[in-house]
Write a structure and sequence with these properties.
CATH superfamily of the largest domain: Aldolase class I
Number of domains: 2
Strand order of the largest sheet: 3-11-10-8-7-6-5-4
Number of strands: 13
Number of helices: 12
Structural class: alpha/beta
Shape: globular
């Protein structure tokens, strides 16, 4: 068990908040029901959609011991509106990354909602603690999605965990129970896993996306530059090859979902196409070690395999 402020999490596993529309109510509720911190990815959702997903997840959470959170990219244009909506719906935790907000701590003050930044440096970890963060996620460049460092989690987590007084969750490279044990040995309070939960029965994406994880081999996950201006890891695919060769199709329309964008392609559109199983036109974000995943499991089966690492 780990405490985030006065919130107790029975099994110290955070399910990564994977946008766009990967981490939704069904997955988050399943994780919370197993005693972990289930997370809805709020990025690019409308206020109404986010509130609806939170309510759906609440209705599906029947077991005590877990918690419900929302992950929102700071890079999103409507970041603060999504934060305020999450607070209104009384989520347990808000996790944010892809940039850093100082204002969020004041907005959440006195609401009971826990604030957990995703950081990649000791400097930002210390700033987070000083501003009132309840915990932090330390994410390395071996994680999936948008990244804040080229260094792997294994290279940065231990130093941060030793120099911070609030709970630290290690993210990046945690695919197997052995990986989780390795991360715990670095002094963290728990782990955050994204890729392992993509290949779960409860994850609401096309099966073709999940099978790309199952079929990926070592070396198939490559670095690319997102139109959000941040590097990311993705499974090699025709469109990712275009991005890496700087010949990606430019967007024909724009909904201004990001505060800053290169406009070389629409990462929003391409992620949605990937999650719908469009191999030719989609982007398939994945942690660098997602090739270790060889089967689709239920959330319960995933937790059963990892619980031995977190002896209660």
């Amino acid at each position: 068990m780990v405490k985030i402020g006065d919130l107790s999490i029975k099994t110290p596993i955070i399910q990564g908040g994977m946008a766009i529309r990967v981490s939704m109510a069904k997955l988050a509720a399943a994780v919370a029901n197993e005693g972990g911190l289930g997370v809805i990815a709020g990025t690019t959702l409308s206020i109404e959609e986010l509130k609806s997903e939170i309510k759906k997840a609440r209705d599906m959470i029947v077991n005590k011991g877990g918690a419900l959170g929302v992950n929102i990219m700071y890079a999103a244009t409507n970041f603060m509106e999504l934060v305020k909506a999450s607070i209104e719906e009384k989520v347990d935790v808000i996790i944010f990354g892809a940039g850093f907000s100082r204002d969020i701590f004041e907005v959440a003050k006195g609401t009971g909602v826990k604030i957990v930044p995703i950081v990649s440096t000791l400097k930002l970890a210390k700033i987070s603690q000083k501003l009132g963060a309840d915990a932090i996620v330390v994410e390395g460049g071996n994680a999936g999605g948008h990244l804040g460092t080229d260094l792997d989690s294994w290279d940065i987590v231990e130093d941060i965990a030793k120099n911070i007084d609030i709970p630290v969750f290690g993210a990046g490279g945690v695919i197997t129970p052995e990986d989780a044990q390795r991360m715990m040995n670095l002094g963290v309070s728990g782990v955050q896993m994204g890729s392992r939960f993509v290949a779960s029965e409860e994850c609401e994406i096309d099966r073709k996306f999940k099978e790309m994880y199952i079929n990926a081999k070592e070396g198939d996950i490559v670095r690319m530059m997102s139109s959000a201006g941040l590097p990311a890891n993705a499974i090699i695919s025709p469109f990712v090859e275009k991005i890496r060769e700087d010949r990606a199709d430019r967007p024909t329309k724009c909904i201004k979902c990001l505060k800053k964008c290169t406009y070389k392609f629409c990462v929003n559109e391409r992620l949605v196409r990937g999650h719908s199983g469009d191999f030719e036109g989609g982007i398939f974000f994945a942690g660098k070690d997602a090739w270790k995943i060889n089967e689709i499991l239920s959330v319960k089966e995933i937790f059963d395999r990892f619980k031995k690492v977190f002896k209660e």
